[in-house]
Each structure stands twice: as C-alpha cells, then as structure tokens.
Amino acid sequence: MTDVLAALPIATETYWVAWAVFLRIAGLVALLPAFGEQSIPVRVRFALASAFTLLTFPLVSFEVSPAPNLLAVLTEPLVGLIFGLWLRLMVHAMQIAGTIAAQSTSLSQIFGGSAGIDPMPAMGNVLVLSALTLAVISGLGPSSIEYVLLSYTIVPYGTVPSASVLVELGASRIADAFALGFALAAPFLIASMLYNVTLGVINRAMPQLMVTFVGAPAITAGGLSMLALSFPYLLSVWLTRLAGVLDGSALLSP
C-alpha cells in the first residue's frame, strides 16, 4: 500500500497535510449535530469526515505545516472534539428545554421512548429531531466547513489549546446552553405555575372536589396546545443561536 501511494504523482507532504486536516475534522464530526449522532453508523460518519476533509483541505492547507509532527497527531483530534462539543451543547440545550417543558406540563411519561440513544420525554424528542432537521436543511454542512476554518483561527495547527481560553469559552458555552434551554422552556414553566396556583385556590374553595382529576386533562391539553403554538418560534430562536456559534460571534464575543 505504501509503494502504491509513493508512486502517485502527489508529494508526500500533501498526504501529511490531508491527514492532519482529517484528524481535526474527524474529532469535530464525531460530535457534530445531526452528522455525528450515535444512531448514525460509524462507517457513515467516517465517510462524512472524509468528505468534509476533501472540501476543507484546499482552504486550510496553508495553515498546516507539511512536516510530520507528533504533537499535532495528539492535539488535532482533541481540538476537533472541543469544537464539536461546543456545537453539541446546542443539542443539549434543546434537550434541556424539552425535559423542563415536559416535566412542567405532566408530559414527561406520555408515549415514552426515544429515537435517539439517550432516553428523553416525547416532547424533547420532537424538539431535538425537528431542530436537527431544520439545521441540516438550513445549511449546517457548509456552515460546518466555515466553523472548521474558524477553529484554525482560535487554535492554530499544531499548538496545544490554552487552558485559560478553553476554560473561559467552555464555561461560557455551558452557561449559554443552560440559559437557552431554560429560556425556551420558560412559557411552559409560567403556565405550570399558574396551573398549580389555580388548583390551589380551587382546592381551598371546594375541598370536596378532586381537583387533580379535573386539572390533569387541562394541563395536558394546555401543554400540547402551547407546544403547537410556540413550536416555530422555539426552533427559530434555537437556529439563530446555532448560527451564532457556527459563525464565531457567540465564541469570539467578550
């Protein structure tokens, strides 16, 4: 195999540059939303990483040193995983929103099951799958290539990521993910609070009435109605925040 590669009219340095680019992209694709889901077979993810490498290689070849570097072999996959994790947090934000909304509206156990690897309420499953589908049809693939180029700006090739930068960016991204998840589920939390306050008032006024049996269908119907009404807005807000991470505005902002 080595003799065959050596006979090709391509410089050996080119093979190394392509391999170095693949190392970073493979780490990123492993956690990339939609393309790096655990339900996707490993061979398909490998093919996606190879395709991203072919598209990205001409754009970043000048960033990569043609000389083989053992340090780069160790650090490039780590850098890819870090940048992939920052994108993966956007999926976790939608999962958090769906879980909070389902718990607030007594829909956490309805239907059950999950299309993904991690079990989650049906409401969270619908939100996550819809968000991933919307991201793909909105150009997640080309935006991911721009995100790879951004990663070389923040962490140049062959350098060990700065601990201070990673801590600062990582903490801000985790905080933003939790804040986004809570903000998306805020309408359901407010409705749940009003529902419980109303049940408490009715229970005090009519102790003999079984308010739970009366209120349970109401909160279930209300939760499904709120989901149907707020669904487009929730997805648009999430997609805007995802675009902010992909173009670097959410990462480079102070």
UniProtKB/TrEMBL annotation:
The lineage of its organism: Bacteria, Pseudomonadati, Pseudomonadota, Alphaproteobacteria, Rhodobacterales. It is found in: Cell membrane. GO terms for biological process: protein targeting. Belongs to the FliR/MopE/SpaR family. It holds the Pfam family Bac_export_1. The chain crosses the membrane at residues 15-34, 46-64, 70-87, 126-154, 174-197, 209-235. The keyword Membrane applies. This is Flagellar biosynthetic protein FliR. It is a multi-pass membrane protein. Its main location: membrane. It comes from the Bacteria. Keywords: Cell membrane, Cell projection, Cilium, Flagellum, Membrane, Transmembrane, Transmembrane helix. The keyword Membrane applies. GO terms for cellular component: plasma membrane.
